[in-house]
UniProtKB/TrEMBL annotation:
This is Vacuolar import and degradation protein. GO terms for biological process: negative regulation of gluconeogenesis; proteasome-mediated ubiquitin-dependent protein catabolic process; protein catabolic process in the vacuole; protein targeting to vacuole. Pfam families: Vac_ImportDeg. InterPro entries: GID4/10-like. GO terms for cellular component: GID complex; vacuole. It comes from the Eukaryota. Belongs to the GID4/VID24 family. It comes from Rhizodiscina lignyota.
Amino acid sequence: LPNSTSSFLRPGSRFTGTQQSDHQVYEVQVDLKHVDMDNSFLCGYLRIQGLTDDHPTLTTYFEGEIIGSKYVFQTKHPEWGSNEKIDMEHWGRFPAWRPLAKAAKSPNFTYKNYAQRENIFMRWKEYFLVPNHRVRTISGASFEGFYYICFNQVTGKVSGTYFHAKSEKYQQLELEHVPDHGCMGAFEFR
């Protein structure tokens, strides 16, 4: 598999948009730092504005599991607090997932050729604050949960739903790719 699938899902891509709860809308920016399709993995930084008065901007490091040959639709991390019922409720919020719903309930279901499909499904798990990775909790904010993600490779749109057992249900993440006119990182040959 190629390291990245589309011009949108690659290291250096930036996405901006909002995370919306019942009461608030927060500005969000995601910067992808590493994409490894062979290992169904990506990572980057998620920045959210206005979540708390004490911390007007919070940036976290996250890692993503890409659903496909390595990861299935059922969350395999008991410490994340999800179960099959919660997984199916959250995946079911994405119209692109609904045709897969029946087959995806099987624990042995593999989402084949995921890199060539219009929609890629992922879980993004925030691990720590940047730059101070020692901070584990912040009053009024949580990064203990994770996001169910549907990424459209054609449009570059990211749709997500945040899950944490103690947080407000179904917080919606909506992001769009920030055009960079195809610019890639610089390379130096020696």
